[in-house]
Amino acid sequence: MVTPFVRHRGKVVALPRANVDTDQIVPKQFLKGIERTGFAQSLFYDWRANPDFELNRPDAQGATILVTGPNFGCGSSREHAVWALAQYGFRAIIAPSFADIFTANCYRNGVLPVRLPAAEVDILMRNAARGNYELVVDLAELRVADDRDFSTAFTADAYGRELLLRGLDEIGRTLLEEPSIAAYERSHS
Amino acid sequence: MTTLFDRVWDAHVVKQLADGVALLYVDLHLVHEVTSPQAFAGLRREGRRVRRPERTLATVDHNVPTGDRSLPIADSVAAVQVDTLGTNAQDFGVELFGLTSPGQGIVHVIGPELGATQPGMVIVCGDSHTSTHGAFGAFALGIGTSEVEHVLATQCIVLAKPKNLEARITGSRAPGVSAKDLILALIGKIGTAGAAGHVIEYTGDAIRALSMEERMTVCNMSIEAGARAGMIAPDDVTFAYLHGRPRAPTGAAWTAALSRWRTLRSDPSARYDAQVQLDASKVGPQVTWGTTPGMVADIGGRVPDPAKLPETEREAAVRALEYMGLAPGMPLEGLPIDRVFLGSCTNARIEDLRAAANMVRGRHVASRVRALVVPGSQRVKAQAEQEGLDRVFREAGFEWRNAGCSMCLGMNADVLGAGERCAATSNRNFEGRQGRGGRTHLMSPVMAAAAAIEGRLVDVRAW
């Protein structure tokens, strides 16, 4: 069951880096388990060892919206990366672009990837750098806005949006297509 | 008007769910120990079964030790994960090539060597390098664990149809230039997100001239350009490779398959959403200098000056050089290395090992270098031993290991120490990928082999 995502208000933290790969989001030593839980501590593990890392700053505590650079989530298909982000507390990630497999994994774990133009992401990063910056991310209305003057529309993959808005059990839904699957198998055996 | 990818996609649509989104049938589902336990647990929790166990193949590769296989796995957490796949395979009726099986190996090496990977298939695996199988004209893509569970339960996947990008690679390669150099040069040209949202179809005479194993190297790294998948239309090279393999069709079924497979090509008038060209004759041996596969240059080149790069690339380059311990303007040739890794789903097949062995025969690894050969599968290992390649490597001072992903991602004991510099035939030079603080330079097997002997990066064309 996917945690539904309709509208979220939360604190923003900026991670101004391009091509953040899933090896950084969750290093390999945390992939040896057989559970879906316990990943919050492993998020950005190597980078968090640095006290100056963005997520370690006092005003980043409690952040639930990550604003970052292009091609976020590239590399390994490990869904553990999204589990770690979600279990750390992130509900939405805003970036100019995301890797494809990472995006698919987000939709299936209640995390919303929001694509915005680089210029708008830059504005959000500047605002976040001033501290205690909050945004409202509204998937129903397809809009990101703050309490001041920032408000912009975004687009979302229609299927991913439906999964998130309704918190759908994707497998249960596909199993309803059993007659179509069986018919396909009969015609291709 | 139709592309190869369109044909394979259209033939697998079970149902159109929405505009551009389809329920797609999966012909082959490859499973390994790291990304599957949570998926099987989900099936168990919901009381679901594996819909088509006979279309599912499992092996252990990512976290397994590559040393003595008669010993228990020393890492108890990894051991539980390996055992869990054994239990899941048994409970759900899935065929498993376990740790002591002669068929064990990296999942993207064993699919093709079994002949399980075939043209026109849709193939998925909870691993991004599933793109490898596209070398056969299959649509093969990496997926997450939730999708693994979905495929186990339904034998289908829900996908928004990606766009099509043609990468036309023409011209003759110079001696010493490998398939790895072509794909690294392409990634350097289009960037690590250059093919995001697209399936790359590799075309052109330079692609046609590649062996099947070289095509796998090219398609393998499609994901490093951000692509959903990479594909090459099957031809006589493909069919000759598949003929007689254990899972390939035989007799009348082979003849029927051949006539079907021969239709798997793009129409001459096919339109792609994007196109890129590369002249293979202008590509030299490639070496990465940074922390993404796109940060790459000719071995004759120099470490770039971030100040002279486009503004959008500057900050990442500064970070990368700091991590890699390199300064702008340094020549790549001559850079001293500590470790060499010959392995991974990119470059650990028999032709890779033969090419590397030819470089090191009668020579010895430099005294300060520790070098490792990790064959892609136990069958590749056995073949290499039959040809005496293991002796060549051992006599040259390489360690000769059992099959697995090993130091490509360092999930087992094969890792770099902080600050160690490695010449690697694998696919990712991300920070910490091969070990925290480890510095990875990606290159071809012949380049890595020569680096092992010299203890520094060298240009194989002049070696």
Description:
The complex is a heterodimer of chains A (189) and B (463). Chain A is an alpha/beta fold and 189 residues long. Chain A has one domain: Alpha-Beta Barrel (Aconitase, domain 4). Helices cover 33% and strands 18% of the residues of chain A. Chain A contains eight helices and seven strands; from the N terminus they run βααβαβαβαβββααα. The model of chain A has no long low-confidence stretch (mean pLDDT 96). With 463 residues, chain B is α/β, with parallel strands linked by helices. Chain B has three domains: 156 residues, Aconitase, domain 3 (2-Layer Sandwich); 89 residues, Aconitase, Domain 2 (3-Layer(aba) Sandwich); 177 residues, Aconitase, domain 3, CATH 3.30.499.10. The model of chain B has no long low-confidence stretch (mean pLDDT 97). The termini of chain B are far apart. Classes of the chains: A alpha/beta (189), B alpha/beta (463). Chains A and B meet through helix 4, helix 7 and helix 8 of A and strand 1, strand 2, helix 2, helix 3 and helix 5 of B.
Keywords:
heterodimer, A: 189 residues, alpha/beta, Aconitase, domain 4, seven-stranded mixed β-sheet, 8 helices, 33% helix, globular, B: 463 residues, Aconitase, domain 3, Aconitase, Domain 2, five-stranded parallel β-sheet, 15 helices
Helix content of chain B: 25-40%
| CATH homologous superfamily placement of the largest domain in chain B | Aconitase, domain 3
Name of the CATH architecture of chain A: Alpha-Beta Barrel
Strand count, sense and barrel status of the largest sheet of chain A are:
7 strands, mixed
Instruction: Kindly identify the CATH topology of chain A.
Output: Aconitase, domain 4
Order of helices and strands of chain A: EHHEHEHEHEEEHHH
Strand content of chain A: 15-25%
Per CATH, the class of the largest domain in chain B reads Alpha Beta
How many DSSP-defined strands of chain A?
A: 7
Query: What is the average per-residue confidence, as pLDDT of chain B, rounded to a whole number?
Result: 97
**DSSP strand tally of chain B:** 19
User: CATH superfamily assignment of chain A?
Assistant: Aconitase, domain 4
- Uncertain ranges of chain B: none
What is the CA-CA span between the terminal residues of chain A?
A: 33 Å
- Provide the structure class of chain B: alpha/beta
